[in-house]
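Re-run with default settings, no changes from the original entry. Doing this only to confirm the output is reproducible before filing.
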Amino acid sequence: MVNPQKPILYAILALAIVWALASLSFPFGWDQGIFAWVGNTIVDGGLPYRDAWDIKGPLTYYVYGAAQLFFGKNTLAIRLADLIFLSFAAFYIAKLASKLSGPKTGLWAAVIFVLWYASQGFWHTAQPDGWASMLALFAIGSLLISQDAPPPSRYLLSGFAIGLAVLIKPIYGLFAIAVAIDAVFRYRTDILRLFAAGTSTMVGLIAPFAIALGWFAHNGALQVFVDTWLVYPMQIYASAASPKAFSRAVGLIRFAESGMLVSVAWPVIVVGAISRRHECSRTFSVLLAWVFIAVFCVVLQGRFFEYHWAIIIPPMVLLGTKGFTALFATIRNERQESSSPGRGLMRPIVLTFLVLVIGLAAVRPTLDAARWTAHVLGLIDTPNYYAAFAGAGDARLAAKYIREHTAPGDKISIWGWDASIIFESGRDAVSRFGYSMPLIMGKGTPQQKQLREEFLSAVRSDPPAYVVVSPQSEMILGEHVDLTDFPEFADFIAQNYTEETRFGETLLYRRLTR
């Protein structure tokens, strides 16, 4: 990262900017569609869990709702919010890299951070796990660069940032361990200051959760909040994954195979860690803990979705930046030692690694930016542009069709994962179940029986104008599922609906007029 080649830096910076503009046009994947639907329910005066069922933490939905309040009820709103968060995180990681690895490294770190984030594609960006990684960045990063003893208020803010991440997923509270390690290194001989730092961190960590509990209790929804966010994931969702130790190891290996950027960057990251260890054992220990906690959180979830790995990006970028800085310093020293064995070999090796890291980070953003540019220039029409987004084009067309063939007061139901159809059609869901996971998971359990009965009561008392049957997530369910797995609902559709049209694998059933 020392003496960077400006043309390369400016080229990837330009790519990052074009990708950022392109990302504003990205459609929703299944997850973003669900979060947008729940966020819209909040904007309309409802509550997550009680009025719109999903199992993510409440911060997710309130961010989506806030984006709609500020930027409108559309896909652009959340993409713009995500881009704003990413920009702040990039500026901050540039500041951290400049402090930890030298002033010339900041822009490199920021651009690679953005491209690495962008390399997840439209399906895995605008995801709350990415925001959790940014919250951890602000929580831990502020302590990394603080040379003086931070006041308790600094630890309070770090704890609060991690507490917000807990409102995305409770397991992200583990990042407080990295904050605790920082405090122990600083104050291991001063018990009172160590106690103050630890207490401040815990108060900050607990505060967001306490606020959430108070909010749902105030609105009479505490029980459904606890049942849906905490109990259901542990009893039903986690048990559906529950891989054995061997399967978790396989998940790590598969990520190493598919996540080529991480695989290639590891040697440089290790060099950065060793270099950091020699300079400052505190920052080395905190960074290493950060990485291990992030990996542990992914393994603990046991599903190894690509967006789960977003939480490792910030510490990896910081360590990788330090690694390249150390390697280029070695090259400079090598030049001065003309008699050193193997002189001249280090430079091409390091440059090869640098090109590979940048290249692998830039592949998907380059494709996204190129396709968007072609669309803007009129070389690709709108239907073909969105058809390239893995099923999102079908959902957009279905939403448009429903909007054009229903009245504002009509309701719809989704048997599948495409809750974005509810959001983009501007129609309400017939029940608090905007997608079918809670009606499928937990076969034979009291929870499934209760949720199915609630759903059937809703559709029978107020039949939706359309029932949308779209693909299920076999990756989550672990098996193929269709309507025959819910025979009561299948019979209801057979007796009251007729297939009217389809868009790809998305079928639309229209209610029969009696």
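The mean pLDDT is 90. Residues 166 and 173 are 5 Å apart (CA to CA).
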